[in-house]
Design goal:
single chain; alpha+beta; NADH Oxidase; 5-stranded antiparallel β-sheet; 3-stranded antiparallel β-sheet; 6 helices; about 40% helix; disordered C terminus
Length: about 200
């Protein structure tokens, strides 16, 4: 059974927005960035869907039951956990429409908005992981398809088990997500009893 998560807008990390939009921090860029962010008022939402699975890690394969993920890096991260959360998170299609508008009328503003969108979806993931930590205790860092040796094709399995279309998140034939400011990831929860033989 999938679980749904929403939250109020977390505080904006302006330094991260500047970093994602590749701007040096000075008075001029700070003022311009704040002006761009103000144009996104009402265009950002925070939604996620997640589920938790018992896992078995063997070699470079993590078996979650509904599917197996082949990645030595993911397996190494999850080897000390007995369960894994798989989630999909998005800041919504309205933000994509806004950035598309500014790509045509003000490319400089669009660049900053893309940086802001990246910061917003990361802050959403941080909020969700904070909730997972409250629920499960210690959790691992998150690990996304397309990172390291985890194939981007793993997206199809994630979409199949979570049905994130219910939160307005879709996957195209090129394995790209829409809205673009979206994240899927694995997070280890429920540390395994390392004193027991594996």
């Amino acid at each position: 059974m999938a679980f749904y998560f929403t939250c109020k807008a977390p505080e904006v990390n302006l330094s991260e927005v500047l970093r994602y939009s590749r701007q040096k921090k000075n008075d001029e860029t700070v003022v311009f960035t704040k002006e761009c962010i103000s144009k996104a008022n009402g265009a950002v939402s925070f939604s996620a869907v997640w589920d938790v699975f018992d896992i078995t890690v063997s070699g470079g394969v993590t078996d979650l039951g509904p599917f197996s993920a082949e990645s030595a890096s993911l397996a190494k991260m999850l080897c000390d956990y007995s369960r894994c959360v798989v989630f999909a998170a998005t800041i919504g299609a309205d933000f994509d429409r806004l950035t598309s508008l500014y790509e045509r009328k003000s490319p400089g503003t669009a660049v900053v908005l893309h940086g802001y969108g990246a910061e917003r979806v990361e802050s959403l993931c941080d909020e969700l992981c904070g909730e997972l930590e409250k629920r499960f205790g210690k959790i691992s860092p998150r690990f996304s398809p397309g990172y390291g040796d985890l194939p981007l094709g793993t997206q199809t399995d994630i979409f199949r088990i979570l049905s994130p279309e219910k939160i307005g998140l879709f996957l195209n034939s090129s394995l790209l997500m829409s809205p673009s400011k979206s994240v899927t990831a694995f997070v280890g929860v429920s540390p395994a009893d390392t004193s027991a033989s594996r």
